[in-house]
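Hi F.,

I've been meaning to write this up properly since the lab meeting, where we talked about keeping a consistent format for the predictions we share between groups. The idea is simple: the sequence comes first, exactly as it goes in, then the structure tokens exactly as they come out, then a line or two of notes. No screenshots and no reformatting. I'm using this chain as the first example so we have something concrete to point to.
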Amino acid sequence: MDDSEALDLLRAAIGDAEGEVWADLGAGGGTFTRALAALVGTRGQVVAVDADERALAGLMRWAELAKGGPEIVIVSADIAKPFALPIVDGVVMANVLHFMHDPAAVLGRIAGRLRPGGRLVLIEYEGRRPSPWVPYPVSFERFAELAAGAGLTPPRIAATRPSAFGGEMYVAVARTGEPMTEG
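Output, unedited:
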């Protein structure tokens, strides 16, 4: 997937994110980090988290060259384990949750780091069987169960697209509870 495709998918899921703080969990080479940077604008911040030091080094080089954009914070961490994540407006997990042996625990920790009304955007394969490349598939139906367990709203599908590896990918959004209003 190239940067413009990632941006289109996130735009469909997120809409306006100008000035917000977002995290890309399992950032890898940074395709979705770069897309988030475009969406949050110069006043926003993107926290890119991955355990792959080489991938993070590449992201760091890109961030240094992309002066004038949002602040990019690089964090080396395994998202399957507890790690320090600031409170954020949103989280993107693209092709990551299917590697988590305990996705309920991971989503529970992440949901706790979202602001009220915060969004969790999940990009996963629909209808996949377990394989070495997708060991723990997360269908949309499974994501709905996991989201409920994490205290998130029922997710909605914002976009779908054919996968380069066969089948289809979905982009789904779930939220934390809306902020309380006085009155």
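Notes:
The chain is about 30% helix and 30% strand.
The two ends are 46 Å apart (CA to CA).

If this format works for you, I'll send the rest the same way.

G.
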